[in-house]
Amino acid sequence: MKDKNQLIGWTLMAIVLFGWMWYSQKDAVQRHAEQMQRDSIENVRMAEQKKLDAEKAKKEMAEKMAEMADTLNPFHAARQISESNTIIKNNLIALTVSSKGGQLKKAEILNKDYKNQEGGNVILFDGDDHSFNISIDGKNANILTSDFNFKPKAVTESSVTMSLPIANGSLDIIYELIPESYFVNMTVKANNLDGFFPSSTKSMNILWKEAIKQQEKGYDFENRYATITYRDTDNDTEELSSMGGDEEEDEFENRIKWISYKDQFFSHILIADNNVEVNSMASKKLAEKSGYLKTYTTDMKADFDPKGVKPTAFTMYLGPNKFSTLKDHEELLGQDDLDLQSLVYLGWPVIRWINRFVFLYIFDWMTGWGLNMGIVLLLLTIAVKLAVFPLMKKSHIASSKMRVLRPKLDELAKKYPDPSQAMQKQTESMQLYSEYGANPMGGCLPMLIQMPIFVALFNFIPNAIELRGESFLWAKDLSTYDDVINWGFNIWGIGDHLSLFCVLWCVTTVAMTFFTMRQQQDAMTPEQAAQMGMMKWFQYLMPLIFFFTFNGYSSGLTFYYFISTLMSVLIMWVLRKTTDDEALLKQMEERRKQRKADAANGKKPSSMFARLQELQQMQMEMQKQKEKNN
User: How many CB atoms lie within 10 A of CB 208?
Assistant: First the structure.
C-alpha cells in the first residue's frame, strides 16, 4: 500500500513537473513572439522616423536654399509686406487705397446732397468692384501690380504713397486728393530702377475694370444712361452704345484724353496728362437685381519713364454728373477743351444748344430759390407755356380761320363734284385761302416749332441730378418712377408697377387729342375728314404708346408732361371760348377786300399761297394746252 501511494505521489509529481515545464515553455514562446513583434514595430517606426527626419532635413535645406535665393530676387522685400488699407479723404469724397496692387478699393461720396436709396453715402465701388492693374516689362522679371502688396508711406489725411520695393529701388503710386473737389491725382513713378528695365521699355500696360453699381431704383431707366464715354486728341467725344447689351470696340485712330465709366448720375473719369493708347473697350450688361448695371473694361497703354525723371500722371474724377460741377472741375485743371460737361447728356446738337443756353440757366436760377423741386418743375412748365403761348394762339387762329371758311369750301365741293375737276377745285380753294388770309398748314406749323422744346426737356429733366432723391406729392424720388402701385412681379410691357404721373399724363393727352381733333374736324371738308380717318385713330392710340414707353421713366419728366398737357388743354379751351367766329369772318372779309384792291392797283400778292395759286394756274393752262394739242 505504501508503494502504491508512493507511486501515485511520484506520478502526480511527474505530471505536475511536466505540466509546469510545458506551460513554461509555451509562455516563453508567446513572450518571445510578442517581443519579436514589438521589436519589429519599433524597427519600422524607427525607420519611418529616420525617413521623416531625412525628408525634413532635406526640406529645411531646400527652404534655406530658396530663402538664400529669394534674397537675391528683386521682389524679396515686397513679399514680406502684409495686406492693409489706407483711407484718404477731403470734404467731398473718401477713398480707400488697398496695399494689394496699390490701387483704389473703395470710393465714397461724402457730399450730403447725394445719398443712396437707403439714405447713406453713395458708394461708387467697393472691394472687387474695381481693379486698376499695371504691368511693366523688366529685363529678368515683369511687374504686375496685382501680384504684390505695396507699402503705404507718407500718409496724410488726403494723400498716400503706395510703394512697391524692387531690388534697391521702388515703384511708387501716389494718390493725392485735391481740396474742395472730386479730383484725385494719381502718379506712377520709378525710383532707382534704371537697371531693372530694358532700354525698350517706354510704356506700361493698364487693365482697368469696374462693375458699375445700380444706384437708382429703375434698373432699365438707369441703364439707358450708363456707358463708357471717351474723348480723343481730335476733340471728338464718343461713347459705346448705352441702349444695347454687350458692346466692344477695338479700333481707335487717335490717342485718348480721358475715359469715363458713368451711370445715370455719377462718373469715374480717368484723365491722362499725356493721353493714352487704347487697345480695346468693352461694356457687358449685368442681370437685373444683381445690384449692378454693367461691367466696363479698358485695355490701354500709357507712357512710362523707367528712369523716373518724368512720372506718369493721371487725374481721376469720382463724383456727380452735374453740369456746373463738371465745368468747374474742368476749369480747375486749366483745360478748356476736355468737354467733361458732355457726360450730362442734353440731346443732339440743336437740342443740346437749347438745353445748354436756355433751360440750364432757367433751371439753375429757379433751383437757387430753395423751393421744392416739384414746384420748380411747375414753374418751369408755366414759363415754357408762357413762351409758346403766342405760337399756340397763332395755331388756334389759323384753325379758326379754316373753320369759318368751311361753308365756302363746302360750296366749292358742290360746284366741282366730279373727281376730274379736282384741279379746278384745288385752284379755287387756294385762291379762297389767299383772299381770306387762311393757311391750311397754319395750325400745324406753330405746333411743329414747339417740338424741339418737347425733345429738349425729354433729355434735360432725366439728367438733372438736382431731382435725385427729391420728393413731391406721392413721388418719393423725382428722378425715377413714382410706383404708387407695385405688384412685385414683371408684366411684359408694363413692368412691376404703375406710375400715377404717367397715367395722368396719358389721360390729359387723350383730352388734348379730343380737343385737337374736334377743332380740326370743324375746319375740314368731308373729303378731308375721310382722309384723316386713320390718322385720327392713331392720335388716340398715342397715349397708350406713351404709357407703355414712359411708365418706367423719371416721375419728374412725366409730371412735367402731365402739367404741360393739362395747361395746353385749358389754354385751348379758353381760346375756343373766347374766339368770336363772326368777328373773325368779318375781319377776314375786310382783308379780302383789301387784297382785291391791292390786286386792282397792280400789287403782286406776297403770300406763299398766292404764289402757289399762280403756279397752279400755270400748270392748269399747260395741261389744257397739252389736251388741246392731243
Answer: 21
